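Lab manual, section 2.4: Encoding a predicted structure.

Procedure: take the sequence of the chain (148 residues), apply the prediction step described in section 2.3, and record the output as structure tokens. A sample record is shown.
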Amino acid sequence: MHLSEFDQVIERYHGALREFCLNGNPEPVQEMYSQRDDASLGNPFGPFVRGWKQVAETTERAAAHYSNGEQCTFERVAEFATPDLRYIVEVERYKTRVGGSQDLATVALRATTIFRTEDGAWRIVHRHADPITTLQPAESVLPGPAAA
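Recorded output:
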């Protein structure tokens, strides 16, 4: 089976995410990220950040929450491509240790990743991931009593 160039990029990206969420290693994901000022990231641990420096700092903090994982799978929901811009929407499922726990946890994230070409290579320009993977009641968007 011959994979397209972009399919190879996605395989590399999935490998980088496995390193991130199973071993707490942010470097392979960081290597794929755009280092331009408009790069952005929204992860489950904090607010959106913009610019390479903040993206790098945020990925390092986020990766530090994961260790000694055992499983990582990806379920493609949607994708779209132009010659210079592509996105994938996936549900990522991990079985890993989170936050220093000795117990394995099952983590599911809905994730959107946008890639663009920069100097002949595909780079991540935006990623958003959060744990909402099931139907939520309308009230779930309202602040809780502590935030009121």
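Check your result against the sample. Residues 5-133 form a domain with the Nuclear Transport Factor 2; Chain: A, fold (CATH 3.10.450.50).
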